[in-house]
Amino acid sequence: MVTRFDIAALPVDHEQAVLAGRVGLAHGPVPVLLRAGRVFDVSGEIDTVADLFDLTDPAAVTGRDLCGVDELTVGGGDFELLSPIDLQCVKACGVTFAVSAIERVIEERARGDANKAAAIRAELEDRVGSGIRNVVPGSESAAGLKAALIEAGMWSQYLEVAIGPDAEVFTKAPVLSSVGWGRQVGIRSDSTWNNPEPEVVLAVNAGGKVVGAMLGNDVNLRDFEGRSALLLGKAKDNNAACALGPFVRLFDESFTIDDVRGAELDLRIDGADGYVLEGHSSMNQISRDPLELVRQTMSEHHYPDGFVLMLGTLFAPVQDRDEPGRGFTHKVGDMVHIRSDKLGTLTNHVVHSCDAPAWQFGIRELFRSISERRVSA
Questions:
Q1: pLDDT-based confidence at 150, cuts 50/70/90?
Q2: What is the DSSP string of 232-290?
Q3: Beta carbons of 95 and 158 less than 8 angstroms apart
Q4: Of the candidates 211, 217, 265, 208, which has an alpha carbon nearest to the alpha carbon of residue 245?
Q5: CA 7, CA 36: separation in Å to the nearest integer?
Q6: Which pTM value belongs to this model?
Q7: What DSSP character marks residue 340?
C-alpha cells in the first residue's frame, strides 16, 4: 500500500531548516535536500549522502527541483522516501541515562524473564537510584559508588559503562539496512519482551565532524540481552530493527549541537488492541555529553564514509500491558511515534522481522544504481 508522507512529521520550524535525506527514483536512490517545502535532487553534484556530509557546507548544494514534500510516498510511487543515510555505519551508545542503566541491570538479573522485573526494579531503585543519577561518569565519586556497590554485591557490567570512564558503543545495523519514516520496524518472532528506544541520532562525517541530527528507534529485545550481554547482536541487529528519520537536520544558525543537548522527545505507542503508552525523555538528563560520545566512538579508528550515532534513551517502559508486573512489550500492529519539535516525527509500525520486507538493496546495488545514474545523465 502506498502511503503519502505526512507534512506534519517535519520539524515545527521546517521553513527555516535544511533537511537531508534520500528519495527512491526509477533508477535508484538519490541524495536530496529539502528546503521550504521543495525536494532538490543533488545527485548531479554528489553521489551519496556520505559525500554530502563531507562537504564544507552541505546546505549550499543547489540541486535540481525534484518535487514537493507533499509528493513523497512510502511503499511505491515516483518519489519514495527512504532512510536518510546510505554509506554511514550505524553505531549506538547504550546505558547513557540513569534509568536505562537500572533497566539493563534488571534485564541481567532477571535473565530476560519479565515476570521477575518488578521486584528487582524496586530493590535497585532503593539501592542505586539516587546515587547513579547524581554521579559524573569516570569521576572519583563514580569510583566511590562503584566500590560501595561491589561491597554490597550490587555491581553489574551495565553499571560499569553507566558510571565508569568508558561508554558502551556498539554497531547497531549494517550499512544501508536502516528503514525510514512510515516503514515497518521489526522485532524477532521468538522475542517475548521487547521495546522501542526513541533516540536522537547524530550524523558524523568522515572527518569526525557532527553535521546534523535526526530521530531514531533502536529497537531492543530485552529478553535476549537479559539472558546474556553476549546476545547483544541478536537483541539489536535484526531485519528492519533500526529506524531513522524522517530527515537529517543539518546544523546551521537555526539548529546547533546545543539544540541536541536540550532536545525533548515524546513517544506514543498505539496498539491495535487499543493499548496506548506515552513517554517523554529529555536529553539534558544524559550522563555523557553527545560530543564526548562521538569522541569515544571515533576512538583510534577512522570511518571513511562517516557514521551515525544513536545517543541512547531515557525511556524505560515499565507500564504493564497485559499481566501485572510484566511491564511493556510490543505486539504486532503497534504504531510507534517518536517526536521532537526541531527534528520532526518518526513513525513506524511493528511487525515480526521475518514478515518485514527483506533487506535486499546493499552496497553493490547502490554502486550499480550510481553507475546507471551517471550513464543516463
A1: confident
A2: HHHHH--TT-EEEEEEEEEPBTTB-HHHHHT-EEEEEEE-TTS-EEEEEEEGGG-SS-H
A3: yes
A4: 217
A5: 12
A6: 0.91
A7: E
DSSP one-letter code for 5: -
DSSP state of 211: E
What is the pLDDT at residue 128?
Answer: 60
- Which residues are registered as beta bridge partners of 204? 210, 307
CA neighbor of 168 nearest in space, from 229, 209, 226, 112:
229
Grid cell 547513557 in the structure block, residue: 96
- Asked if the peptide bond before residue 246 counts as cis, ω within 30 degrees of 0, the response is yes
Q: What is the b/e burial string over 100-118, where b = at least 16 CB atoms within 10 angstroms of the residue's CB? A: bbbbbbbbbbbebbbebbb
Chain segment 194-246, per-residue pLDDT in tens: 999 999 999 999 999 999 999 999 999 989 988 988 999 999 999 999 999 99
Element (H, E) at 309: strand 307-310
Q: Which residue has the cell 532512510?
A: 83
Query: 345: which strand partners?
Result: 339
